[in-house]
Amino acid sequence: MEQVVKHIVLAKFKEGVTEAEIQKLISDYADLRNHIKQIKSFEWGTDVSIENLNQGFTHIFETTFQTLEDRSSYVADPAHVKFGSELLPALEKVIGIDYVPNREP
């Protein structure tokens, strides 16, 4: 089975950030895959849970890499750093987690 690394970001946008601004940030986030070769895939979505455990987080972003080294290159890439400087001011709260999926118990 192929090993991958998942980079998960949970985001809660600040009150007052418009839907158009959020959509622009999402588009810019997705566009990173056109500039950073280490990105294997990118997906995003909004919370649809019925458990009410989201703690205000509304958006989730998942970027997949082949290796931990690829993830580290992504984090340091100037395009990612520039995007982060645009995204972070729009967020009230953010959680970032990287993990290697384990399919065994």
Automatic annotation (TrEMBL):
Residues 5-99 form the Stress-response A/B barrel domain. One of its GO terms (biological process) is pollen tube adhesion. It holds the Pfam family Dabb. It comes from the Eukaryota. PANTHER family: PTHR33178, STRESS-RESPONSE A_B BARREL DOMAIN-CONTAINING PROTEIN. Homodimer. This is STRESS-RESPONSE A/B BARREL DOMAIN-CONTAINING PROTEIN HS1. The lineage of its organism: Eukaryota, Viridiplantae, Streptophyta, Embryophyta, Tracheophyta.
